[in-house]
Specification:
Oligomer: single chain
Helix content: 40-55%
Strand content: 5-15%
Shape: globular
Radius of gyration: 23 Å
Mean pLDDT: 90
Strand order of the largest sheet: 3-2-4-5
Length: 427
């Protein structure tokens, strides 16, 4: 069961099919009615701290702490910080002005608050304050060696990945950096194959701080480097692949923190546009990333089938209902700030109607919302083509972990794609 919601109530259909069984004559649930149908939140433990992290879920250091808090099952609340326009109160509060930061509340009696920044310092604090939770940092030779291995891999990887920006480097210099990066990947793979005791994680059976320190970069490299520099870090490295699989199946990461292939692929071109400069490699990388993202859109339906579970449909439906005004505005925005290459719809009314229809499916309480999306009567629309465009645009814009968990995002895209396909068939 999805941990933050009680068992969902079924959303009843509010319309009848017309003669061809495909169109609804009367409107279905309004947004306010859909809000009333949202599952009531279970009583949760009182938060003991606030995590300050980036809005998009792109910061690898924030991802570390996010994962640690979930692994330790520490109740917390979040405040999201826009890294492009940091609020003055945050800059006044945190001397470095960087994320993440954690504000520990202290006991009700003393209210002695602690503000800590820098991910390593935060992990140390969390180990000290919550000694009964899984320990993240260890004073052992094995942990120190793993830290050194991670540092060497990160240095080698970034030195090669960003080498095209350094105009002073020769082709031989760049090749040397590529060889060193591949060498460090091979060393990591070999170390994972020899570890004792045997276990899915770097130090054995239990997730530790070195795992959460390493996964943010490995996750991004896994999906983005084949596109940007032509390196598949998992190819021929079976031990590294097993570790990645173990990380992706860990509930602390899988159920909210990690992204998915489409999200990191789509984000790759955004990163290159922001940080890549105007080099030939960056321009070509943007083209490849956009092409790869467009290709993955064609797999939205197939990739969603494994995640057609009620906890993920409720999560996606709740996010859509809670943020419907922003979603409608985004998919009809004629001057978007990001993913400008995606076509946008022009009719706010059509977007509102079709997204209410999608939300009704997601919150239907059905065992399979993909099946429901295939057979539920379509709403009466001025333009099926416009409505299909709305669905395609929203599906392309959903990003994990920014908007929701990766499984929920994949299911959401799948439902939107089914509806878009059906609308296209009636156009």
């Amino acid at each position: 069961r999805f941990p933050f919601f009680s068992t969902p109530r079924v959303v009843e259909a509010v319309a009848e099919e017309n003669n061809n069984g495909a169109l609804l004559e009367s409107p279905f649930l309004s947004w306010s009615e859909l809000e009333e149908m949202l599952p009531s939140a279970d009583e949760k433990p009182k938060p003991v701290l606030t995590l300050y992290r980036d809005t998009n879920g792109w910061c690898p250091f924030c991802e570390r702490i996010w994962a640690v808090l979930r692994a330790k099952q520490v109740p917390f609340t979040e405040t999201l910080v826009n890294l492009q326009d940091k609020p003055q109160w945050y800059k006044d509060m945190v001397p470095t002005t960087l994320v993440p930061a954690v504000l520990l509340y202290g006991s009700d009696e003393t209210n002695e608050r602690k503000l800590v920044w820098e991910s390593m310092d935060i992990m140390k604090l969390l180990d000290e304050e919550f000694p009964d939770s899984p320990k993240m940092l260890h004073e052992t030779d094995e942990f120190s060696e793993a830290m050194e291995m991670n540092d060497a891999l990160s240095r080698a990887g970034f030195a090669y990945i960003y080498s095209s920006r350094n105009t002073s480097l020769t082709e031989e210099d760049i090749e040397d950096r590529r060889v060193e990066f591949l060498k460090q990947l091979d060393l990591l793979d070999a170390a994972l194959g020899k570890k004792e005791p045997a276990g899915p994680f770097i130090l054995g059976d239990e997730l530790t701080g070195i795992d959460v320190m390493m996964i943010p970069v490995i996750e991004r490299w896994r999906y983005q480097l084949p596109i940007t520099i032509g390196i598949d870090i998992l190819e021929g490295r079976s031990n590294l692949k097993k570790w990645v699989d173990a990380m992706e199946s860990h509930p602390a990461l899988r159920d909210r923190v990690l992204g998915d292939e489409y999200s990191w692929t789509a984000v790759a071109s955004t990163f290159l546009r922001i940080f890549g400069g105007n080099s030939t490699q960056s321009v070509e990388g943007i083209g490849r990333a956009d092409e790869a993202a467009a290709s993955l859109m064609g797999s939205f339906e197939d990739n969603s089938k494994a995640h057609d579970k009620i906890e993920y449909s409720i999560e996606a439906g709740s996010k859509l209902v809670s943020n419907h005004e922003a979603v409608v505005k985004d998919c009809t925005n004629a001057e978007p700030k990001s993913q400008k290459e995606l076509p946008r719809a022009s009719s706010v009314e059509t977007a509102d109607v079709i997204l209410r229809y999608v939300a009704s499916i997601l919150l239907s309480g059905k065992e399979s919302v993909l099946e429901e999306a295939e057979k539920a009567g379509l709403p009466d629309l001025d333009s099926s083509e416009e409505a299909a465009l709305v669905c395609k645009t929203v599906a392309a814009r959903v990003c994990a972990p920014r908007d929701m968990s990766a499984p929920a995002a994949m299911l959401f895209r799948g439902v939107l794609s089914v509806v878009a396909r059906r609308l296209g068939e009636t156009a």
